[in-house]
Amino acid sequence: MELSKNSLFPIPIDDYPKLFDYVLSTQGLIYFHNLKRDYVLGRNLNLDEYNKLRLLYVYYATSNRNPVEVSVWQDICKTLDEKRIFEKNMYQSKEDLKKETLILPNPEYRSGYYRKHVEFVKEKMKSQ
Questions:
Q1: Is 111 in a helix, a strand, or coil?
Q2: Given CB 3.0 to 4.6 Å as the disulfide criterion, which of 9, 51, 69, 103 pairs with 93?
Q3: Kindly report the CA angle at 114 between 15 and 39, in degrees rounded to 5?
Q4: How confident is the chain (128 residues) per 10-residue block, as mean pLDDT?
Q5: How many Å apart are CA 10 and CA 121, to the nearest integer?
Q6: Please, how many CA atoms are within 13 Å of residue 23, restricted to the half-sphere of its CB?
């Protein structure tokens, strides 16, 4: 499958759930949809909320094997960077999500698997 249909190429879509160490809990899904709604409606979020949106979005999209949602997550990350809303204190944001049980350990997680996509992107950028 080519990159245009698979946002995390060369990772097969069926392997998306193996990419990240956490998944959303039921309460995390509700929180994610609330954050996403606020973002889409243009409401200003604080840095911690933007961090959590980034994290929850990728966990949501990959656990659901949804390349379209992964593309949206990538677009949001790019847009936030363009607005100079950079990832900062992500560790603490993630720890808060864990503490509040909004995310849970992913039993399908494979350490280092996401690196395959990152290496592919780096090689592609070098060749251009």
A1: coil
A2: 51
A3: 90
A4: 74 96 98 98 96 97 95 95 95 98 97 93 86
A5: 9
A6: 15
- pLDDT at position 1 is 44
Q: What amino acid occupies position 9? A: F
Reduced to 3 states (helix: H, G, I; strand: E, B; else coil), residue 24 is strand
Say how far apart CA 7 and CA 125 lie, in whole Å: 15
Residue 117 near residue 78, CB atoms below 8 Å? no
pTM given for the model? 0.91
Exposed (0-12), middle (13-18) or buried (19+): which is 74, by Cβ within 10 Å? middle
Give the SS3 label for residue 4. helix
Which ranges of the chain does DSSP label H, i.e. alpha helix?
Answer: 26-40, 47-63, 67-82, 90-99, 114-127
Kindly state the DSSP code that residue 102 receives in the 8-state scheme.
S
Burial class (CB in 10 A: 0-12, 13-18, 19+), 116: middle
Per the listing, tokens 């954050």 go with 35
Look up tokens 């204190």; give the residue: 89
